[in-house]
């Protein structure tokens, strides 16, 4: 066990985590130069296309140190985007150490700090690594000083490398062996294995990624999931190389996978503890803390026949993405679907794309919203979370919307812009104090509806990524809300209706009309896109018709002949407008959700 090291690579976006992982895999000889490709561990198409990591990936590297000792290095490559910070926290729970990567040109950035605090919470040993020293703008000495002063780390442990050229990577592998502690645990104690990830294999069932804390597990063992008290028999255990590699057993300190014929996806919960049936461990391991979703939207299959497929696809996706939550929902125009919670708009886009690619389901998304309390004149109270169930405005006495207490942690230089952002979102009862020099903790009461839309993304923008945000629901308060309908060619589009504050209605309506104008393809007739509150139109934009030049064949001669052709075309377009059907492409629904700023 003293020759095992479990570590992850953490950093801000684009500081070179995946490239460094590629170099380590090459150095340890797991892949030949002929088979090598960039982003080896990013196995989803969407990761390769966008050049980002979405899922943490594990790989076991056999390494021979300079002193001739053989080591097993379990490397976990993690995402950098804040929308996937939950992946990072899960990956860190399976490690004893971390490489904190810092760009030699950019220096310490927001996610660098956020991920550093995550690693410190997990009591990990941290090796700072300055990457991209081959860049013309690189200044490793200045960054090393920053690491020492700002992060309070020992300058002796700082490693310098260029993951692109491979310079200095061999020294990092030596530093891992030298500075990071081996795992602790006893192979003879009762089995304790922490599930930190899982994915679904159509032929083998659920493949569970585990970190063995104590004990030993091998094929044929009867195991027990402590979260839902289900029993299984182990079919295969192994470690992750570039493919799954079967082993006789996994012992304390190792990271690997278990296949035990788990067919029902919901049985596997990341953070759960696996133990033996005959000799169970006394108590489950502490799992992962529950996460707060900030954006809610409904997903509907374009074809109602796909509803069952969508249900099983979401189950399988949740196994692989623990930050996703969903419950059943229905809509007048779109039929049955699911109401889902996400960590941000990038997360929403990724989930939508994964459902379409991996499970081949076409989807429609609705505008994000929250749950309102509507009190009617007759004294009854309705809970409305879907605009299509909004009652007739004449029968409403008053409406209450949920308010949250937002806690925002920022460097003090951003105080002004954050305060104006909160005021712009109808914030009230603002308060602040200084938890440490240079940092402000700012609290503010905001309507939840203003937060789910794009508040989190805006906060990250105005604070250059340094702002962190947490919230808790406090109460419901009276508010002047209206239902904003979007009409395309005179037809109301149920999925685009939204409940909004009267002050924001025109701004939202204009934005929705403009977004749809960009995305809906032109037809042979003119299309009007309108935003309406009840019977009054508050915003409008037009998509002009495609026009065929019907007079092209007429050269010279009488003008009345040309006029006759144009009148005939005009009558045809008018008739077409009354019977014409406008198909709204799916990206148009998403464009309404996106902020234009």
For the secondary structure, the number of strands is 31
What would the average pLDDT be, to the nearest integer?
79
Q: Helix proportion of residues, in percent?
A: 25-40%
Structural class: alpha+beta
Q: Name the CATH superfamily assignment of the largest domain.
A: P-loop containing nucleotide triphosphate hydrolases
CATH topology of the largest domain: Rossmann fold
Span from first to last CA? 53 Å
For the sheet with most strands, the description reads:
8 strands, antiparallel
Shape summary: globular
Produce a short descriptive summary.
By secondary structure, this protein is α+β, with helices and mostly antiparallel strands.
Folded structure, characterized:
The chain is globular. The chain starts with a strand and ends with a helix. The mean pLDDT is 79. With 597 residues, the chain is α+β, with helices and mostly antiparallel strands. Strand 5, helix 5 (140-150) and strand 6 (159-160) form a beta-alpha-beta unit. It has 13 helices and 31 strands. Helix 11 packs antiparallel against helix 13 (586-593). The strands form 6 sheets. Strands 11-10-16-7-8-15-12-13 form an 8-stranded antiparallel sheet, with helices on one face. Strands 2-3-1-4-5-6 form a 6-stranded mixed sheet, with helices on both faces. It folds into 5 domains: 4-179, P-loop containing nucleotide triphosphate hydrolases (Rossmann fold); 192-276, Elongation Factor Tu (Ef-tu), domain 3, CATH 2.40.30; 295-365, Alpha-Beta Plaits; 372-479, Alpha-Beta Plaits (2-Layer Sandwich); 483-593, Elongation factor 4, C-terminal domain (Alpha-Beta Plaits, 2-Layer Sandwich), CATH 3.30.70.
């Amino acid at each position: 066990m003293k020759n095992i090291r479990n570590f992850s690579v953490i950093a801000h976006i684009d500081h070179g985590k995946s490239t460094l992982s590629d170099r380590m895999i090459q150095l340890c000889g797991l892949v030949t130069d002929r088979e090598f490709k960039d982003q080896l561990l990013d196995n989803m198409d969407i990761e390769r296309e966008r050049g980002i990591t979405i899922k943490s990936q594990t790989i076991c590297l056999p390494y021979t140190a300079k002193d001739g000792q053989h080591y097993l290095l379990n490397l976990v490559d993690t995402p950098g985007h804040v929308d996937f910070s939950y992946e990072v926290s899960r990956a860190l729970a399976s490690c004893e150490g971390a490489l904190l990567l810092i760009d030699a040109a950019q220096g310490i950035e927001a996610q660098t700090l956020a991920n550093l605090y995550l690693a410190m919470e997990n009591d990990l040993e941290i090796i700072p690594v300055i990457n991209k020293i081959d860049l013309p703008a690189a200044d490793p000495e200045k960054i090393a000083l920053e690491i020492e002063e700002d992060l309070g780390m020992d300058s002796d442990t700082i490693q310098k490398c260029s993951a692109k050229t491979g310079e200095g990577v061999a020294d990092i592998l030596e530093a891992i062996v030298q500075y990071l502690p081996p795992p602790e645990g006893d192979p003879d104690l009762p089995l304790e294995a922490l599930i930190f990830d899982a994915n679904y294999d159509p032929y083998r069932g659920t493949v569970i990624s585990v970190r063995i804390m104590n004990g030993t597990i091998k094929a044929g063992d009867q195991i027990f999931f402590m979260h839902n008290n289900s029993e299984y028999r182990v079919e295969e255990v192994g470690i992750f190389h570039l493919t799954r590699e079967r082993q006789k057993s996994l012992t304390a300190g190792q990271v690997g996978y278990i296949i035990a014929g788990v067919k029902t996806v919901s049985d596997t919960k990341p953070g759960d503890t696996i133990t033996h049936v005959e000799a169970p461990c006394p108590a489950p391991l502490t799992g992962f803390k529950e996460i707060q979703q900030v954006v809610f939207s409904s997903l509907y299959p374009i074809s109602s026949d796909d509803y069952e497929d969508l249900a099983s696809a979401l189950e399988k996706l949740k196994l692989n993405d623990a930050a996703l939550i969903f419950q059943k929902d229905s809509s007048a125009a779109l039929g049955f679907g699911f109401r889902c919670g996400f960590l941000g708009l990038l997360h929403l886009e990724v989930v939508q794309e994964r459902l379409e690619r991996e499970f081949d389901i076409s989807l429609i998304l609705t505008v994000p919203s929250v749950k309102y309390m509507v009190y009617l004149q007759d004294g009854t109270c309705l809970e409305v979370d879907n605009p299509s169930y909004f009652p007739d405005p004449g029968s409403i006495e008053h409406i209450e919307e949920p308010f949250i207490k937002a806690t925002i942690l920022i460097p003090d230089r951003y105080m002004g812009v954050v305060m104006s952002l909160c005021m712009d979102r109808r914030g009230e009862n603002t308060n602040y104090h200084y938890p440490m020099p240079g940092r402000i903790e700012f609290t503010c009461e905001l309507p939840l509806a203003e937060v789910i839309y794009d508040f989190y993304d805006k906060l990250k923008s105005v604070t250059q990524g340094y702002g962190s945000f947490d919230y808790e629901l406090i109460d419901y308060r009276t508010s002047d809300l209206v239902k904003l309908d979007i009409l395309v060619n005179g037809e109301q589009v149920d999925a685009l209706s939204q409940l909004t504050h009267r002050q924001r209605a025109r701004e939202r309506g204009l934005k929705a009309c403009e977004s749809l104008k960009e995305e809906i393809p032109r037809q042979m007739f003119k299309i009007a896109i309108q935003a309406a509150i009840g019977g009054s139109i508050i915003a409008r934009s037009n998509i002009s018709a495609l026009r065929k030049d019907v007079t092209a064949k007429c050269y010279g001669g009488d003008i009345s002949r040309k006029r006759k052709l144009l009148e005939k075309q005009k009558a045809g377009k008018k008739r077409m407008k009354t019977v014409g059907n406008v198909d709204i492409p799916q990206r148009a629904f998403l464009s309404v959700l996106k902020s234009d700023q």
